[in-house]
Amino acid sequence: MAPDERPDSVVVVGAGQGGHQTAASLREFGYQGRVTLVSAEDALPYERPPLSKAYLKGTADEAQLWLRPATYYVRQSIDLVKGTVTGIDPAARTVRLADGSAYDYGHLVLATGARPRVLDVPGAGLRGVHTLRTARNVDALRAALASARRMVVVGAGYIGLEGAAAARAAGCAVTVVEALDRPLARVLSARGAAHFTRLHQREGTHLLFGQGVTALHGNSRGGVDAVELADGRRLPADLVLIGVGVGPRTELAAAAGLPVGDGITVDASLLTADPYISAIGDCAAFPYARSGNRLRLESVQNAVGQARLVAERLTGSPRAYDDLPWFWSEQFSTTVQIAGLAEAPDTEVVLGEDPDAYSVLLFEGQELRAVESVNRPTDHIAARRLLGGGIKVSPADATAPGFTLKGHLASHRGGASG
Amino acid sequence: MPKITYVAVDGTEQAVEVPLGTSVMRGAVLNDVDGIVAQCGGNAQCATCHVYVDETTLDKLAPAAPEEDEMLDFTACPRRPNSRLSCQLDVTGDLDGLIVHLPERQN
């Protein structure tokens, strides 16, 4: 039996969605040993997706973000420890915290998450320059928005665009600067990107593509007052939001001698090179079951799915991680939902004539890899079932007259016709 | 605050007061009621906040919107005519006295 099975205690480092779920699932699956959940944040474990939406806009308070109330952790005997882990001793199977305390572990789960990438230009440390990752970040950003007149957002990813939307709602003038030629380039098709560009323009946000930022300039009081672009232009700004992505928090793993690339390297069962240490969620680079490529995903679904898998393994039911990725975002009452993952799509088929409600099917060769649905929840649900159930869809299928994902699903389930 | 009763699979009842403007899902989470996962945080994306509404209190609710209706096909336990996603049930004064039964599992 592998050494990691049925440990007498589990320490989870990081109390984001993945860390919380690991502890919760261990108890759900009947784990009786000691469970310690170490949180570096000054809050009960909470959901991050609303941070850039309802919480930034002030329509949800912090208690509405909590994954569970304080009583839950007491009732489930989950020892929620506030502190920063400063080191792992893999030989002694101990983690050390900044306050000098130490915890022995039978198994260690690294759910350390990710941190915002820093914009490496002069002036990045000026007052008025914000990032958006934690509830405290958003408290500061919301307070700044109350008096800001001109915000520049650097980076047109989900965080940047959602921040821009909230700032528009607060009456602030907003310019988004993106180095690539379109928004959401890493996560959305060109058609989806064009759609979101139109949406934000319609709401009065100014978008600049293909523009690098070379410096942030400040006033005599140390506050930011302009953003300088590669072409020499200066955009006036009293508030700057940096949304140029996140990087995995791998330092603890690397210092413990574990292999690390873009994320902590884990195998299909989410174990690191040390059989007593797993890694999950935003910080973990795992082999994607559908392609074999090593990748890292930043999503609630991935964090929760991987947490559950580790909890299953630690309670005696090991398996390989093959959950279908899915993701959603909402901006200005437009919902985009993505099922699957297209690493190198070579064919696209669009379903739906409505420019505000359609799905893009992304193929690699003859194989459907992902479906991106805008305001088409029926397609999204069917896509999750098709991709998750291994039901084939070819480009020829998808371009046949009358094709729908739901119809295709029905015709492949025990001969049912609808 | 409206009072909502959550009935566990074993028949245990928890009657709690749920703040107006939240949801039946959030009411369970805030009051530490087990049996609702709510992985997506209340966006009708994951079907892990599935409840069976007690037949005697069904008339307190408006029918499901299309998004909820689609997602109800994705529940871990079988969908029944009284199945709802509790994240889509907004708490208003009308919901006082609502009784929901929790399914055996959500994942």
Automatic annotation (TrEMBL), chain B:
Cellular component, GO annotation: cytosol
Signal peptide: none
Listed cofactors: [2Fe-2S] cluster
Keyword Metal-binding in annotation: yes
One Gene Ontology MF term: 2 iron, 2 sulfur cluster binding
GO biological-process terms attached to the record: P450-containing electron transport chain
Entry keyword set: 2Fe-2S, Iron, Iron-sulfur, Metal-binding
Name this protein carries in UniProt: Ferredoxin
